[in-house]
Design brief:
0% strand
């Protein structure tokens, strides 16, 4: 398996397939991140497309990357925020009413396979009910296995700010799960 740097070198030499191979494993999580912010399938796809174009152009222009994955998620996040501000909408659609968005939100990445399916669906449902400041760091940490430091780089925030947002998000998540009478045992056992 090739490393990020090997793919980037190939892309700079004109190998367009290398770009596809570089970003393909990142797309499901990038889409979910955009969807958590924008709450719209179409807008999430637009933000992701903008991020892909920006990533390709940055590679072609010889930008140096120490951690492409974190940089790409940061790009997706900023493109999603830009689109959110441009549209200035708070709620574009409810995930429950859009089966296609639900399927994409719940599509399995390598990290999600290990999580029990019924817990994953309910947890994602509750995470989407949190504020963007709380949902994005929790999603990146628990579903994409990113460290707090990586999340702080992606979101361009202080590490302590991310820790605080995650703590508050976990507390609110625990309340939401208690209220739904689901996950009650996990909340007590794991102190989520």
């Amino acid at each position: 398996m090739k490393t990020e740097q090997e793919y980037i070198k190939q892309i700079k030499r004109g190998d367009q397939e290398a770009f596809s191979l570089l970003v393909k494993p990142l797309l499901p999580a990038a889409y979910k991140t955009a969807f958590l912010i924008l709450k719209s399938k179409e807008h999430a796809e637009d933000a992701l497309q903008n991020a892909l174009e920006g990533a390709f152009l940055s590679i072609i222009k010889n930008k140096d990357f120490t951690n492409f994955k974190a940089w790409f998620y940061s790009l997706v996040y900023s493109r999603s925020i830009d689109l959110y501000r441009k549209n200035n909408r708070h709620t574009l659609m409810d995930v429950d009413e859009n089966s296609e968005a639900q399927l994409k939100l719940m599509s399995e990445s390598a990290q999600q396979v290990a999580i029990q399916k019924e817990n994953k669906n309910e947890m994602l449902y509750h995470i989407t009910k949190l504020t963007e400041e709380q949902s994005v760091p929790l999603f990146l940490h628990y579903y994409e296995d990113m460290s707090v430091k990586e999340i702080s780089l992606v979101l361009n925030e202080n590490i302590n700010t991310i820790k605080t947002r995650m703590k508050r998000g976990k507390q609110k998540l625990a309340r939401l799960m208690k209220e739904s009478n689901s996950f009650l045992q996990e909340v007590k056992t794991n102190e989520i």
